[in-house]
Amino acid sequence: MAENKVKRKHLVYVDVLNIMSCFAVVMLHVSLNVFNPSDTYWTQAVLFQAIAIFAVPIFFMISGMNLIGYADKYDTKTFFKKRLWRVGRALILASVFCYILFCIFPFSFYGADQYASGIGVRDFVSRFLTNSINDIYWFLYTNLI
Predict the structure, then answer these.
(1) What is the CA angle 5-22-74, rounded to 5?
(2) Cα-based distances in Å from 52 to 6, 7, 27, 46
(3) Cα separation of 92 and 141, whole Å?
(4) Mind listing the pLDDT tens digit for each residue in 5-23?
(5) Alpha helices of the chain — where are they, by DSSP H?
């Protein structure tokens, strides 16, 4: 099947939404003390979380919007092969990197003390399949499909 290149119009408002969402994600990450109510800046953290919570759904909607019309470019099998290769490769490489780093320096990272028992293939596979190596990679798992 020959690939048909379909030229789509560039939508500036999508760029604006992406930029706003990037800033909002930073706000979400710097206000994680919202989960510790005894913290001094808890009220400020709640405000940041409330203002910035729109970011994740916006990213998912933009991703979905970018997938509309993929069948005009290539068949579904090719689409999933490309997606799995691109996202899966990043997920595996980042997970291996973090796993090795956490095993070598288990007391240098928050929550990494559970890796003090050492490196193991079975342990890596178990943690990888349950998104337990670095749970901030949750978005890569969702983008595999």
Answers:
(1) 20
(2) 34, 33, 6, 10
(3) 10
(4) 556 788 899 999 999 999 9
(5) 12-30, 42-52, 55-67, 76-104, 121-129, 138-143
- Given a cut of 90, whether residue 122 has pLDDT beyond it is yes
Give me the mean pLDDT over the 111-132 stretch.
88
Q: Which two tokens stand for residue 137?
A: 């990679």
Instruction: Dig out the tokens for 93 from the structure.
Output: 């490489």
Question: Looking at the chain, how many residues does it have?
Answer: 145
Note the pLDDT tens digit of each residue in 34-60.
Answer: 888 776 788 899 999 999 999 989 988
Residue 99's CB: how many other CB atoms inside 10 A? 21
- Surface-to-core class of residue 29, CB atoms within 10 Å of its CB (0-12 exposed, 13-18 middle, 19+ buried): exposed
Tell me what the pLDDT averaged over the chain comes to: 84
Contacts of residue 25, defined as CB under 8 A and 6 or more positions apart, other chains included, come to 52, 55, 56, 59
Please report where in the chains the tokens 């983008």 appear, as a residue.
143
